[in-house]
Structures are given as C-alpha cells and as structure tokens.
Amino acid sequence: MLLILHPHIDENSAAFQQTWAYLAALPNIRVQKHIVQGKAQRLTEIYLIGDTAKIDRELIEALPAVERVVRISEEYRILGRHKDERRAIGFEYNGIQFDQDRLHIFAGLCAVDTKENVEAMLKALSAQGQRCTRMGAYKPRTNPYSFQGHGKGCLPYTFELAGKYGIKVIAMEVTHEDHVEQIDTCLEQTGRPTGVMLQIGTRNTQNFELLKAIGRQAKYPVLIKRGYGIPLTESLNAAEYLASEGNANVIFCLRGMHSSFAAPHRNLVDFAQIPVVKRLTRMPVGIDPSHSIGGRDRSPDGLLDLFHATAQGVIAGANLILVDFHPEPLKALVDGPQALRLEELPHFLEDVQIAREAYEKRRRLAKTAMTI
User: Fold this and answer.
1) pTM of the model
2) Which of 45, 54, 348, 368 has a 20 to 30 Å separation from 138 between CA atoms?
3) What superfamily does domain 103-371 belong to in CATH?
4) Could you report the per-residue pLDDT of 327-352, keeping only the tens digit for each?
C-alpha cells in the first residue's frame, strides 16, 4: 500500500507525527518513507510493506497527513506505475529535470584517457549547447590485462573542466561502493563544479550488494543498464533494489541484448522495449546505441548504423542517450572502433532532433486519435 502525503508537508508538524505514529504501530507492517523532489513540489510517499490486505483503507485515508492511498502490485512496488497517473514521474538533479517527457544526450568518452581529450570533448559539447556528458573513470573489462580506467586519479581535472564548460551532469560508471565515496570526496574538494549520475553497468545489474549500497545514498541519481543477457523483468527488479533502499531517482537504460543473432552488431538492439518500460514503471528510459552497435558501419543510404539505432530509440520515446565520442577514436583506450568523431557531433545532434520531432508529432497524433 502506498500513501501519498500532502505536498510540502513538514515532518515536524503534528499532522505528520500523528500519521507516522499510527502507521508505525500497525502489526506486521514495515513502514518506508521516500521523498520525491519534483520541479514544482516536494512529495513524501510512505510505503506499507507486509500484510496490508487487512488494513482499512478508509482509516488510512483519514489520517491528517495523507492526501490519498494507492493499492500497489507486488512487482516494482516503488518504481511501478500501479495504474496511478497522478504520481510524480522523474526527478530534478543539479538544475536538470529528468522524466519520461524530456530527452537528454550524454555524449562523451567511454573511458577518460587524457586531460587534453576530456577538455576537447567538453569544449565541443559546450559549443553545441549540451549540458550532460559521459566520462568513464572506472572501467570493468572482460580481459584482466585491458585498460581498467584511471580511477580517482582523473576525477579532479574531469570535474573542474566540466565546471569550466558548463556541464551539469556526468554519467560515470561505478563498480564498487568505494567509488561513490571517491567521487563525493573529489566533488567536495573541487567545489562541486558539476554533478554526477552514478552508472551501474550491465555486468553489475545483478550485483545486489552493490545495488543496495548505492540505493542507500540519496545524493546522486542512478543510471542502471539492462542486465547482460537476462529478461527485462529481472533488470527492472534490479532497479527496484535501488529504490527499495531509498533512492528512487533512477533511469533505466537499454543497451542491446547479448545474443548470437546480433551479428554483425555487438548486441541485439532492444529499443522497441522503451514504451514497455514506460508503461510498467515511472522511470525515464535511456538508450546506449554505441554499445548496442559496437562499430562504425555505414548503410547504403549514407547513415551510420549507430545513427539508425539511435533514431529508432528516440522515435520510440527515449529520454536519454549515452553515446561514445572521442577526439581520436583510433587512439582511444576503450571501444575506439565504435566512437564517433568530434566533427560528427553537430550531425549527430541534428539527426537526433529530426527523430525527436517525429516522436513529438506521433504523440500529438495519438492524442488526437484518442479523442475521436
């Protein structure tokens, strides 16, 4: 059972204290509080977990702090929609709103290699009016002898340069809870010139202890990728692990499915499931075309396969795009063959805009058709 309290309620108020005391006394019920900070208002949601079938809904609705009550299903208890379209969707972080209506592009280096390349990338993004990027400091690799990333050593100049060029959010993969502490410490030491969205890679989608640890912190939002060759439902439950520990500021990212049927691409593109995730959950949905395609092959129409895959995701309603760029792809230490060149950035952004306009037009048409 989900309780949505009156907006902006003060937790020190008599109404909140009376409501909380009543809920805490319910037998065989665990009470869990979540704060949802939207762009216009701050909402408090309280989840009653346990044997809620015997709870009198009318008594709960009569509590002074409660605005309304929602019966929720077993799956995706916190992140699910539960047939309630009035609940807040998305979150704001460092001045940027993330939800199921907006689209943000996180173009950048799959792995930070040099300070010069970081600056070249951020300078190019700034010139195009972009405020988000991806920068890999910690890189899990299949081969133990492959480049694993510079780790905390590259954080100071990456964060300082992001601030210099007006980048508000950096998507950065973490593979251990210590990495979150390193990021937080470095941001504090550099004066917090930018923000970080913690990224859970496909290999760690079922690292449940890592998910719990990252879910327990509420300072940084989380981008979680679909698991490596597992069903969609299992990956969505991985996202629920984050929310169940307290952090519901989560974006779900499709990155292609590991399959022998994907060839010649790296993974089988699964972007048709964007509307499925939106229907089942309140999470914004991202795509990673770079790791889906894994190369720079060009079709006879002149467009790179990566452009085509990106457009497929955007026209299906994607809210975020992770895409690899590099000043010199042939010299990149990670995934150079799939990285786009900096001079291709304006073309990529314009192509995305064309697909986005098509999606908006389709959405307007659908609303018109529904009224007929």
Assistant:
1) 0.88
2) 348
3) Aldolase class I (3.20.20.70)
4) 999 888 888 888 999 999 999 999 99
